[in-house]
């Protein structure tokens, strides 16, 4: 349709779609349109295949270097070296694959797949069809409990009310009617439209399908998701860059050494003179030297240790309620300096709760949270009186919802607002089920958008009584008397003014306010909403979770900026922000969308509260934050959050109340939906990075020392002090085990008392590089000194070289095992706080002795 369906008369919409409200489409027309428009389905990203996850483990420059070393080892016939390198590659990939594959399967187990059916009028007959066969122009009948199968314009509404939280992010229900609307309206304000994926919780209605499949609001979001390219995590980028530096270093050093050998040994003269055997033998010797240098320079154990360290972090986070889908995301969260939070369900409980009652001129406070019936209604500490309980009685009777209470939780059936009224009655000591039995409902005037109120008729003793609830202004206009302190008195202008002032006060506190009234019915002509008796107001809201304020303060101390992004109105957003201690400017999505690019970039640095936000706004907010240099974490539970979840550096979905789509596009799933779990995970991420830096420091210092020892020896024409296999053993086993133990080191204190590191901070800063070179030079100097002395003592024949290499081999291992404790001292971790490290050092020492004093020595040449 060229015009927005909500701005057109319903009959014009039906006509423009070539349909008829009573007859529907003909089967022939429907089939023809199905060919033109396609099936009514959302094209979802295909599940990641196992082979894809496995191959993903090889995407690292360090891994590429190892693959090159593997090929070169095979070419020159060093099969033992090639087998060892091959095993390293496979074990690292298998371990990473297992972790990510398990996470994918966990996500699949959370999904609840179902085949939607639709009641549709075709050829004048109401029939059930699979929703995938719906086309624009179909006339669909919605009943309570139905999932809306396609977008459409409401034609008839009989108290039809929908929960659109999966699309808008807000838990309160939305009443639907067929009235024409004007203006440029966001989805949540289009009260005459229904949208695919939302749920009918009350009443019934008839609508005409205007959009199907990828043309629906749900489809537009799916398209946004598919258009986003996920970047590598900061850690992946840093490791890849670091790997490239190592690779270039290996190539450069190996080339220099090969050229030195080429000139020194006069290979070219041998080749020219025809002594090909000598040429190839000497070339092989120098190729072996180049491989040895490559092996010395590459920290073969680093990919495996990083993978295992991240996997350990995954397990730790899982215990805290966070499921990580991709291993590198563990560390990314520790680097985040902005967390964009959806209000409903993340910062708040996603459970409407009555917090205030205004009755008999008094403002009562209601304690308790959510749908729990634990709580009291009190006035300055005094309990709620029975004479004022009429307001909660009306709330329970003028009500179509149910509560199913168990020890673990409370399940609501119906409207969340009505459920809150039932809880309010139970806090006052009333049993709503007994009330309904005592005063059975015999008729109902359902809510509609014109009257903005609902009334129910009940048996009351020998007569009948009508109870009403609705918008305060509307209900008050129907009343001439007021029930106050057990008496019925005339409602004067001052009383009206006081009631409206209280309603205004509640609204400023972001409370949703309902007014309550009643009328005794003597005969049928009295059954109109006039001349009623006003009783009072109930104010309710979706309250913040109790722990959120503390963790917002905690985040500020840790240098993390919290931004609230919500589909709710600005007043509610600001009020909730005040309650949780969140400060900063506020702006609505429509206003933000109208700003120029420069203004947007400026407001994004100041505003912490974004209200009435649509999916494309969320996506742009995250993108602008990233472009400003921030590492952004984004939380969400609805379909509307999915594009921003995918765009964010780390998308965090809700496991309990989240949709399948939000979980599929996320990097992390909160199994308990708690904001506190995010902050705990940030600390975990920072701790993991601290440990990664410790074992990178440890492993690289060994590699630098090895390169210095081998390169200097070759440069001065000395024999190889270490074979390639010895270097592999050091890098993988005697260094690898302590490095692995460092990954479970206790985290340093004060991680959350300082801001996160900058996203562009390299893995090796100048200070770290200087310390590494200094420590490595000391180790190399000591080992080279021993090497020179050993050569003079044992000579350079085969047996002598074997003794010399064994001494160099063992001394380097011992120095590295001592070095591991100096690395830990740099981050101020208590010396004996990690029993795994002590065990790893002893095992490494034992293995080294085994290589020297057992038949393994024949393999290593010791």
Task: Tell me about this structure.
- The structure is a single chain.
- By secondary structure, this protein is α+β, with helices and mostly antiparallel strands.
- The protein is built from 32 helices and 28 strands.
- 49% of the residues lie in helices and 18% in strands.
- Strands 10, 11, 12, 13, 16, 17, 18, 19, 20, 21 and 22 form an eleven-stranded mixed β-sheet that branches. An eight-stranded mixed β-sheet has the order 8-28-27-26-9-23-25-24, with helices on both faces. Strands 1, 2, 3, 4, 5, 6 and 7 form a seven-stranded antiparallel β-sheet that branches.
- A hairpin with a 2-residue loop joins strand 12 and strand 13.
- Helix 4 packs antiparallel against helix 10 (276-297), helix 8 packs antiparallel against helix 10 (276-297) and helix 27 (724-734) runs parallel beside helix 30.
Task: Please summarize what this structure is.
The protein is of the alpha+beta class.
Q: Give the CA-based shape.
A: elongated
What is the average per-residue confidence, as pLDDT, rounded to a whole number? 85
Largest sheet: 11 strands, mixed
* Radius of gyration, taken over Cα atoms and rounded to an integer in Å: 36 Å
Total helices: the number is: 32
Architecture per CATH nomenclature, i.e. the level-2 architecture of one domain: 3-Layer(aba) Sandwich
Structural class estimated from helices and strands: alpha+beta
* Helix content bin: 40-55%
Task: Look at the structure and give the CATH class of one domain.
Answer: Alpha Beta
Query: Which regions contain 5 or more consecutive residues with pLDDT less than 50?
Result: 106-114
Strand content: 15-25%
Q: Going by CATH, what is the homologous superfamily of one domain?
A: Calcium-transporting ATPase, cytoplasmic domain N
- β-strand number: 28
CATH topology of one domain: Calcium-transporting ATPase, cytoplasmic domain N
Distance between the amino and carboxyl termini: 82 Å
